[in-house]
Batch of 2 targets.
Target 1
Amino acid sequence: MTQTNSRVRDMTQGSPIRLILLFSLPILVGNLFQQFYNMADSIIVGQCIGTSAFAAVGATGSISFLIIGFVNGVSSGFCIPVAQYFGAGDHKNMRRCIANILWLGLFIAAVVTTLMMFTTGGLLHLMDTPDDIFSDSYTYIIIIFAGIPFCMFYNITAGLMRSVGDSRSPLYFLIVSSALNIALDLLFIAVFRMGVGGAALATIISQLVSGLLCFLWIVKKFPILHPKKEDMRFDVKIAGKLLSIGLPMAFQFSITAIGSIVLQSAINTLGSDIIASNTAAAKVQNIIFAPMETLGITMATYCGQNLGAWRIDRIKKGMFQCTCAALVLSAVCCIFVRTCGEYVALLFLDAEETEILARVGQYLDICGLFYAPLALIFVFRNAIQGMGYGVPAMTAGVFELVARAAVANLFVRSIGFTAVCYANPAAWVAADLLLLPMYFHIIRKLSKQEKQHP
């Protein structure tokens, strides 16, 4: 395979685990930086504005996951055929895919942004967002949704570079974006006193900058990703293939998020202090999840490229090695979160908030015991998606939705915060019940097809 620069990495040759770890490391650092600048929002909001504002931002988390998750999912899904064509050495169809990704991305970003401008207030009311934080919640999330095109722009440009094996370049631009976000947070909140709206505005400006940097880098360094004039025509067949992978991935995120919304609605009935406890615990867990999530992102590219090259043997070997690494990592994360989680929560909360901190510790102690099933979700779901099977991954999201909704409707209002602590673990176990058997079914199917492939 012809490589146009040293940043392009062919994952169909060489040691699977070495390729997986080398590819994962920049993504991990990038995810941690992303969490860092998300934390900056929360820390500055919590410390400079107060616990009420912190709860207001936290109350929007599930809606944000619903919509931003949809955008991230469709962006990631669109890039999977690019990885497959790259693995197959079919650069012409790869360029045609990229052109159609641009057309579809513009359309989806416009539709989703317009829709959310008119429906966000109603969604917050449906979730029983407490009156004392409703105004701040609405201000924060409506600005975030106004930046959906910027979010999609970054995810597509970064995803295209990862599809051809470059996980380093998006990292560098994310670091720049993170530093900018923190600086703007301090400027808008601490200096200009713009409140939670300032935190949201800092986020979308940073996303725009990181997207522009990725785009300019592709223009300068990645001629392999440049569609030619004849590639720019909208192609119904290629668009259909992109949507057949992108939409199930998008809906998988959104279906999972609907379960989170149902759960958040139940949490909202318990009051602002419980919302703050859940928000702080979720912020800590987002940091812990980053290494496991990174392995999943890597496996989507790894499996996509190797499927394109019809190296099913390498997919199986890489999956075994990555699963072992993920299980070890989940044990390390469990130990860390159960011993240090409450101290990390002090970044967002005042030490005098003893009841809230105690609930955070309870949440992390319980969830930490179930990180192994979560690690398996990241690895197996992304692998299945990377092989082009978006619907099974979406169906696993339905399993998560049902589990979270069951806990929310049956236990949260009667038992309280303890039930909240078990909602996510229940969803993780439910998803694995589908994903693991589905993966082995797909591998058996592809192994038979490989024998017939020229």
Note: The CA atoms of residues 289 and 341 lie 13 Å apart.
Target 2
Amino acid sequence: MKNILATLTTVLLLISCGTAPSEATSNTEEKETTATKGSNTSFSDGFYQINAESSTCNWVGTEITTKTHTGTLNVYKGSLQVVDNRVSSAFVAMDMASLDVTDLSGDAKASLEGHLKSEDFFGVEKNPFSELKLESIKTKEGQSYAGGLLVIRGISHPISFPVDVSQDGNQLTFDGDMTFDRSKYNVKFRSGSFPDLFPDLGDKLINDEISISFHIVAES
């Protein structure tokens, strides 16, 4: 099933690294200027732990023919900090070995999952975790935007995306969608961004953009 692309996730978001990801979230090497369309929503100050079992991440990958594959990815762990009633930093790590294909079954499902975990795509054996390091969530006029760094296969790039955040007691929830360009993270298989490696792909080209929808639950 090598003619298929899938995605990673979460929310919030993704580092590929060879060891278990760190909880540190406040300092990052790259900065992103986040366009804000924000709300006046404020949250209770404190430290919140991501509830991995209650959080979900779904991905969608497509080919140029519009053929689509879908799947899920498990949250490994994460945390966030609220300072002065605003989310000041957050960290969400995804377990890349949990990558699951939901639109196939049997041998086809197993084949695609194996290919996505191989070096052609996310290189899970060497990079068992992907990570999103948020630096801010800013809101204005009812719409919030999250900004930070997405790390896949040990490569980090700035990212921003709209997110809905709400609080109920000691629980914060984050819902939204994000899209990333897999070619920026050295995921090259049948990508039009690498014509020297894959000339004349035609209708076998796999789109670089991968979409993720997420529901992240954090508790103080």
Note: The beta strands are 15-17, 46-50, 56-62, 68-83, 86-101, 129-140, 143-152, 155-168, 171-181, 209-219.
